Amino acid sequence: MSALRVGVVGVNYAAGTHLPVYRALAEEGVVELVAVATAHRDTADAIAEKFGVPHAHVGYEALCADPDVDLVDVATRPSLHRPMAEAAFAGGKDVLCEAPLAPSVADGIALIDAAAAAGRSGLVDMQSRFWPGLQELHRLVGDGFVGRVDNISVTAFYPTFTTDAAIRSSGWCAAAEHGASSLRVHGLHTADLLRWLFGELTDVRGSAARREPLWGGHLPADSVDSAAWTARTPDGAVCSVHSSWVARFGAGWRMVVHGSEGMLLAEAAGHTGHFPVRLSGARAGDDGPRELVAPDGAATEPFTRLIRHLAAGRTAEIPTFADGLAALRIAEAIELCG
């Protein structure tokens, strides 16, 4: 079986996350990192030289037409995802798209249709599922560790855009027109985890707010930075989520699952896309929660695991475009509540 040949569109985010993983896996023969594309010749050449990539393209169209590419990794801002993914499908490529899938539900539907028309695979990089702590949480919930699931509470308070470094590197997230927000970026990882762990969510309602009008005291911001919402799982459990990416001294991510026979607690010091997850739990009769999975692993660990699955053809656990669309529907339902 030949190695999966990957081309990456966009390098601002990918340079510190996706590209190092592809280079490491290429050294193992798991993938081939064959192409990168940016909007400018100097950045395309520089990143290709840094990561040893043979093809440096100016513009995503050229990469999507490159016959040496099997999979296009779209690692750009959400407002650009649809035309880039559609070009990849038109070029006969499969697509791995950064989350969120698209800036709107309508765009997400169009991308699912484009993948189907081309007969290609569309996957979304909601890699949080691949932390060992969350894999074990998934298994234990399915095995009945907590009995009947009754209540699920998630808090996700991050100081991300209270820091100068984040504002410098990802300040474009301040503008709603780019399709990003606390609810649609970090928040969609949580929405995906809830669906994966407990099933489709119904009765979604909540409130989304723009609390910080100036990031760093100078950058105007009109994207949603804080949200609180509730939902029900298929068997009736009550779920609540409260999140923000402008929470000074935010304590990170925490999910508590209470059931008729026990409880499970998953915790991360930051966004679950990059911070390792500790899992603790207890059953009726125990003295209290004990650690079940330690929070080990580098920030790129879940993405590495996702790509290993993809390269081996084990795609059943990888979020699809349909999963990405379902997460977008949750975000839009909350935003429509006001």
Describe the structure.
By secondary structure, the chain is of the alpha/beta class. The chain folds into 2 domains: 122 residues, NAD(P)-binding Rossmann-like Domain (Rossmann fold, 3-Layer(aba) Sandwich), CATH 3.40.50.720; 170 residues, Dihydrodipicolinate Reductase, domain 2, CATH 3.30.360.10. It is built from 10 helices and 16 strands. Strands 8-11-12-7-13-14-15-16 form an 8-stranded mixed β-sheet. Helix 5 links the parallel strand 5 and strand 6. Helix 1 packs across helix 9, helix 5 runs antiparallel to helix 10 and helix 8 packs across helix 10. The chain is globular, with a radius of gyration of 20 Å. The model has no long low-confidence stretch (mean pLDDT 97).
Note the topology:
Elements: E1 4-9, H1 18-27, E2 31-38, H2 41-51, E3 55-58, H3 60-64, E4 71-74, H4 81-90, E5 94-98, H5 105-118, E6 122-125, H6 132-143, E7 149-157, H7 164-170, H8 186-198, E8 202-209, E9 214-215, E10 219-220, E11 226-232, E12 238-244, E13 252-259, E14 262-268, E15 277-283, E16 290-293, H9 301-311, H10 321-337
Parallel strand pairs: 1-2, 1-4, 2-3, 4-5, 5-6, 7-12
Antiparallel strand pairs: 7-13, 8-11, 9-10, 11-12, 13-14, 14-15, 15-16
Helix pairs in contact: 1-9, 4-5, 5-10, 8-10
